[in-house]
Write a structure and sequence with these properties.
The complex is a heterodimer. Helix content of chain A is 85%, strand content 0%. Chain A is mainly α. Chain A folds into 2 domains: 1-46; 48-264, MetI-like fold (Orthogonal Bundle), CATH 1.10.3720. In chain A, 34% of the residues are buried. Chain B is globular and about 45 Å long. Chain B has a 6-stranded mixed β-sheet with strand order 6-7-8-3-9-10, with helices on both faces. A 4-stranded antiparallel β-sheet of chain B has the order 2-1-4-5. Chain B is of the alpha/beta class. In chain B, strand 4 and strand 5 form a beta hairpin. Chain B has 9 helices and 10 strands. Classes of the chains: A mainly alpha, B alpha/beta. The A-B interface holds A 163, 165-166, 168-175, 179, 183-184, 187-188, 190, 265 and B 55, 57, 74-77, 79-81, 83-85, 87, 89-91, 100-101, 103-105, 132, 152.
């Protein structure tokens, strides 16, 4: 560090201060919001029975933790989501490989995929419920359905935009289609696949929550719908906040994985 | 000298929904073992198509291409192809990049691995084996691309404007280097270029093509008097200007 010029050290310091002030402001906004919420509830500007309040949320978290149901419900939702986005990404990539392999298949299925992509998959909820039954499997299928079509389309598009000259290069050595797939198309598009995985975290969470609204007896979606029905707004707010935290955590983990993978390249 | 590549009345048409394009029409020429031959012609005249036909990734509409006396049918291990850019795979280290051809041909073994290592050491990339392409300069990348081609031990090298993506100084330096490597490894080389000076300075013969559909317009034997016969020193030769002007006139460029 000693060989850095004073100018450069000043520059680094300024950059650090910029970064810190952004983080500090972000944190302040969050704290301010919660404070405002708490104060307005205490001063009866808002009705805490309908709007809940941070201290009530905290109490709810404590009661739920004591009987272990907090862990259970969060765990169920997170597990369903993870299975959903992983299977959505894997299945989507597999289908994208098939489409890349056979141009004929890709052309035939193009309009079907476009329509499926435009269709709000949540509309299929009741059908899945009837076909598969009120179990965790239909929730996972819901999560899978929401993420798989987007994955197919985006990964296939990435496959198609693989550098033609890199493929030509392998062909000049006499490569067959499988070699081209394994040596160029897949490795060149790992960033696109991981980025699909990242998008799928959010998408399959939508699927899981909708699924839990419809069928489940456990999970954060279940807590939200149950809380709403019996008018326990504390429970609803608590579940939504925990859901936000879980979603952020999953997203951050995948983003971390992405960073690791791109570093390896 | 023995013929190593023969084109006999080769024509090539491309088809698309917009119609049919005749790229090359009735081209015949021979290339001899150890020669350095350049193909020059107006841009878009089908020069690269000829290389694709020799390499076997395209099939001619009519006529035949022979490499070492055998009719070309698909790619052959006798022919190495260098494209316009280096196309190193950024997710592979330099050594793994140079082994790509052998990997495709399922010829990865200890002997070949040692041969590639030796090439890398000999041509100044020894310290960079475990580096990644983005850590190398343009010239070094081009050298790595040449070693990738040489690794599969081809006898004929097809060079498709391999330096056109480089800046002028690097281009002069790297074409000199690669020319020396090709001569040292005793390969036959066919260079496609639109740079007349590059063609005159490096080649034993130059084939000039017409506008599309490409036909052979003329063939020049290049005899330059220079002490050490390398591309850069040959640019000093008294005959250099003569050949340059002749070919420039042949190409009949109108802007």
């Amino acid at each position: 560090m000693s060989n850095l010029s004073k100018d450069h050290l000043d520059y680094l310091k300024k950059e650090r201060i910029k970064k810190l002030s952004v983080a500090a402001t972000q944190l302040s906004i969050l704290i301010l919001l919660f404070l405002l919420w708490e104060i307005s509830a205490r001063l009866k500007w808002i009705d805490p029975f309908i709007m809940s309040q941070p201290t009530r949320v905290l109490k709810t978290i404590i009661t739920l933790s004591k009987d272990g149901s907090l862990l259970l419900h969060t765990g169920v939702t997170v597990l369903e989501t993870v299975v959903g986005f992983l299977s959505g990404t894997i299945l989507g990539t597999a289908v994208a490989i098939v489409l890349w392999w056979s141009e004929f298949t890709a052309k035939v299925f193009d309009p079907y995929l476009v329509v499926l992509n435009a269709l709000p998959k949540t509309a299929l909820g009741p059908i899945i419920l009837v076909w598969i039954g009120g179990t965790a499997s239909s929730i996972i299928v819901m999560a899978l359905l929401i993420s798989v079509v987007v994955t197919i389309l985006s990964v296939y598009m990435a496959f198609q935009s693989t550098d033609e000259d890199k493929i030509k290069l392998l062909k000049t050595f006499g490569a067959n289609k499988l070699k081209v797939l394994k040596m160029v198309v897949l490795p060149a598009n790992i960033p696109s696949i991981v980025s699909a995985l990242k998008i799928n975290v959010g998408l399959s969470l939508v699927g899981v929550i909708v699924g839990e609204f419809l069928v489940s007896k456990a999970g954060l979606g279940y807590l939200i719908i149950y809380g709403g029905q019996v008018f326990k707004m504390d429970l609803v707010m608590t579940s939504v906040l925990i859901l936000a935290a879980a979603a952020a955590l999953m997203y951050i983990s995948v983003a971390w994985l992405e960073k690791k993978l791109t570093k390896m390249r | 000298m023995e013929k190593i590549v023969e084109l006999k009345n080769v024509s090539m048409n491309y088809h698309s929904s917009n119609g049919e394009t005749q790229a090359i029409q009735d081209i015949s020429f021979d290339i001899y073992n150890g020669e350095f031959v350049s193909i020059v012609g107006p841009s878009g005249c089908g020069k690269s198509t000829i290389l694709s036909l020799i390499s076997g990734i395209l099939k001619p509409t009519s006529g035949n291409v022979f490499v070492k006396g055998a009719k070309v049918d698909g790619t052959s291990e006798n022919v190495g192809y260098m494209l316009q850019k280096d196309h190193l795979f950024e997710w592979r280290s330099i050594i793994k990049n140079t082994l790509i051809g052998l990997e495709v041909q399922n010829k990865l073994n200890k002997d070949n691995w040692e041969y590639v290592n030796q090439l890398l050491d000999e041509y100044g990339l020894g310290e960079f084996k475990e580096h990644y392409p983005n850590q190398l300069s343009g010239g070094m990348r081009q050298r790595a691309a040449l070693i990738r081609t040489l690794a599969a031990k081809p006898e004929i090298l097809l060079l498709d404007e391999p330096f056109s993506a480089l800046d002028y100084q690097t281009r002069l330096a790297i074409s000199e280097e690669i020319w020396l490597i090709i001569k040292k490894e005793k390969k036959t080389a066919i260079l496609v270029t639109h740079d007349i000076a590059e063609a005159v300075s490096a080649s034993d013969r130059i084939i000039v093509l017409t506008n599309r559909p490409a036909q052979v317009k003329s063939i020049y034997n290049i005899n330059l008097t220079c002490d050490t016969k390398t591309p850069i020193s040959c640019r000093e030769a008294p005959e250099f200007r003569y050949y340059f002007n002749q070919i420039w006139k042949e190409l009949d460029v109108h802007v």
